Amino acid sequence: MIQGISNEAFILGCSAIGAGLALMAGIGPGIGQGYAAGKAAEAVGRQPEAQGDIIKTMILGQAVAESTGIYGLVVGIILLFVRPLLGAL
């Protein structure tokens, strides 16, 4: 172990780093959803009669893309507040 740092403090620090990395998983879905919404707006502008189908498809795609961001958020919350790695000590 590193001198001056207890095992518990080391694990909590590594858990905080892991939570930060897990929360960075929300960046990709945010960019993708914005891009998809922009393309859907373009498609509705070109074909206003297909607005219902375009919006349904866009919302389904955004729901699937959002799930990865939610998984990252859940993992980050578990690492920060449940602290499952402290039980291994």
Automatic annotation (TrEMBL):
This is ATP synthase subunit c. Belongs to the ATPase C chain family. It is a multi-pass membrane protein. GO terms for molecular function: lipid binding; proton-transporting ATP synthase activity, rotational mechanism. Keywords: ATP synthesis, Cell membrane, CF(0), Hydrogen ion transport, Ion transport, Lipid-binding, Membrane, Transmembrane, Transmembrane helix, Transport. The record marks E66 as: Reversibly protonated during proton transport. Its main location: membrane. GO terms for cellular component: plasma membrane; proton-transporting ATP synthase complex; proton-transporting two-sector ATPase complex, proton-transporting domain. The keyword Ion transport applies. It is found in: Cell membrane; Membrane. Residues 17-79 form the V-ATPase proteolipid subunit C-like domain.
